[in-house]
Amino acid sequence: MTDKRRKSAGRGLAAALAAAAKGDTTDHAPASSAPNTVSLPIVDLGQLAAQVAAAAHQSSTVTGSGERGGATAPLPSRGREGKKLIGGHFAPEISTQLRILAAEENTTVQALLEEAISDLLVKKGGGRRR
C-alpha cells in the first residue's frame, strides 16, 4: 500500500470512528477505486456481545420442568451436585506438580486434593478415613 493510500485509509477510519462516537452508524468511508476492495456492514459490537451472552445464558439454564426458556435456574453439574468448592491460590509450580502427579498416578487433581485434605483432617483429629 502506498503512503498516499495509507493516509487516505487513515482519514476514512478516523471519520468513521468520530461518527461512531457521535452515534452515527452510516458508512463514512471514502469510496475506493482499488480492484479488490470489500465493503463490510457496520456491526454494533455491544449489541452483538449482548446477543451472544443472552444466547449462552439461555442455553445454560432450564425451567423447573426441564424445558428451555422462561424462569431459569442453573443446570447442576452431575459431578458437583451436593458439593462445595474449596479453593486456594498457590504458586504455579504447585499446580504443575499436582498435574504431573495426577498424570503419573492415572488420577485427577481433584482426587489428589481430596486424598490430601482427608489425610490432613485425620492427622489433625477432625476427619475420618474413607
Describe the structure concisely.
The chain is mostly helical. The protein is built from 4 helices and 2 strands, in the order H-H-E-E-H-H. Among the domains are: 46-72; 92-123, no CATH class.
Task: Give a description of the structure.
There is one protein chain. This protein is mainly alpha-helical and 130 residues long. Among the domains are: 46-72; 92-123, no CATH class. The protein contains 4 helices and 2 strands; from the N terminus they run ααββαα. It has a two-stranded antiparallel ribbon with strand order 1-2. It is elongated, with a radius of gyration of 28 Å. It starts with a helix and ends in a 7-residue tail after the last helix.
One letter per element, helices H and strands E, the order comes to: HHEEHH
Helix content: 40-55%
Give the DSSP E fraction (strand runs of 2 or more residues): under 5%
Label the structural class.
mainly alpha
Question: Could you give the count of β-strands?
Answer: 2
Keywords:
2 strands; 4 helices; 3% strand; 130 residues; 48% helix
Topology:
Blueprint lengths: L2 H19 L23 H15 L1 E2 L10 E2 L17 H13 L4 H15 L7
Antiparallel strand pairs: 1-2
